[in-house]
Amino acid sequence: KKIGDIENRFIYLANLSNLKTYVFMDHWCGYNERFYSFINNKRKFIFPRKIFVSDIKSKIELSKSINYNKKNIIVSGNPSWDKFKLIKSNKNTKILNNKKFNKNKKTLLFISEVISEEKRRIKYDFSELDILSNIITLYGDKYNILIKQHPREKNNKYSKFLNDHKNKNIILLRYELNIYDILYCCNIIIGMTSALLVELKLFGYNPLSYQPTKFNKPIINFGFGIKKINSLNKISNYENSKVIKSKYHFKALDKILKIII
């Protein structure tokens, strides 16, 4: 079984009955793999009537990857991002009073993922633990390091890091903490392949994507102008100095519904 297989099987059966089918793709990778399944033990590509994508970059890459009429690939934007027009960040000052937070240091926010947990399925050249370890080695003396956990990560995952670096200003953020309420104190935001990087970019911040692969070819080549870096050296050059209002239209759901209804 593979990701998207159940959905593809539903689409396959719907196509046999001449029902309208639609798919939304919210990422910039795995285009070819996304649309095939094994039907009756035979590898078969299964396409819906229309495919909605987040941006023009995704449309171009998708149309090059699959044999599909590009007129039926619609750049709609992402419905889950429409919420950003309503979000208002409130300064959560409790973080400043955390005993591990040094007000005399700048702050680095690390966006973690479940790469280690998915290592049997996801064949990356790196892990979130390796990258965090390198960040602590290079910047643990200069920055407060905040760790934004993935919802699927267990609380004890970073226990060893915290125990090994008790003299550092490292804070594991609570799951229930609203990430947008602490961005005001973050000078650097860095992650790997998390979709949260796109959300933060749309919210007006300038996150960095660090994917140390062979030949520096990114696993996910994000759109929306997200800065890709090939080294952790000198990331202080990318400190966020200005919040830039996004030009994203935030009306993806309206556009999709207008087409399918």
What is the SS-derived class? alpha/beta
Q: Low-confidence runs (pLDDT<50, min 5 residues)?
A: none
Percentage of residues in strands: 15-25%
Order of helices and strands: HEHEEEHEEHEHEEHEEH
Total number of β-strand segments?
A: 11
For the largest beta sheet, what order do the strands appear in spatially?
A: 8-7-6-9-10-11
| Cα shape | globular
Mean pLDDT over all positions: 88
Quick structural overview:
This protein is of the alpha/beta class and 261 residues long. 23% of the residues lie in helices and 17% in strands.
Structure notes:
- The chain is α/β, with parallel strands linked by helices and 261 residues long.
- Helix content is 23%, strand content 17%.
- It has seven helices and eleven strands.
- It has helices at residues 5-16, 31-34, 56-65, 128-139, 159-164, 196-202, 252-260, and strands at 22-25, 36-39, 42-45, 50-53, 73-75, 106-111, 143-148, 170-172, 188-191, 208-210, 227-229.
- A six-stranded parallel beta sheet has the order 8-7-6-9-10-11, covered by helices on one side. A three-stranded parallel beta sheet has the order 1-4-5, with helices on one face.
- Helix 4 (128-139) links the parallel strand 6 and strand 7.
- The radius of gyration is 21 Å and the shape is globular.
- The protein starts with a helix and ends with a helix.
- The relative contact order is 0.15.
- The model has no long low-confidence stretch (mean pLDDT 88).
